[in-house]
Specification:
single chain, 173 residues, mainly alpha, Ferritin, 6 helices, elongated
Amino acid sequence: MAKAAKLDNKTAKMSDKGLPIDIGISDKDRSTVATELSKMLADSYTLYLMTHNFHWNVTGPLFNTLHQMFMTQYTEEWQALDLIAERIRALGHYAPGTYAQYAELSSITEPASVPSAEEMIQLLVKGNEAVAKTARAAFKKADGVDDQPTADLLTQRLDIHEKNAWMLRSLLQ
């Protein structure tokens, strides 16, 4: 609960100078959705960084397979970050953009050292599932206020992260 109060400050509404935003979603509802999207951005950035780190540092018999798979995933994740941040801005709020903000907002815990290839896969499964859970929670808020563009963005992210989790999990069987 205390974390939610901090989020309101982190996703502070842009200045009321200039034209007000009138897109059919109230200020309060836009703020709620922007807060949820900020969590999504933080989880997505944390997962991106972890995936890129693992791409650089993976070793073992599956090196080439994992190196390529991780590159495909982190490249897609990188491109999605901009879409999420731009949606927060379209709702009239600033997007979080610092490591400190991401650390506070993210539900993903990064490893302290370089894990084994199998542990990397397990961590990325959990990371993709965490992003999917965050997207699902944000979707409920967006859908509840008839924010179709955000709901559409989150549906696409859910599809990608659930698919990534499945593909990574398949390597562990």
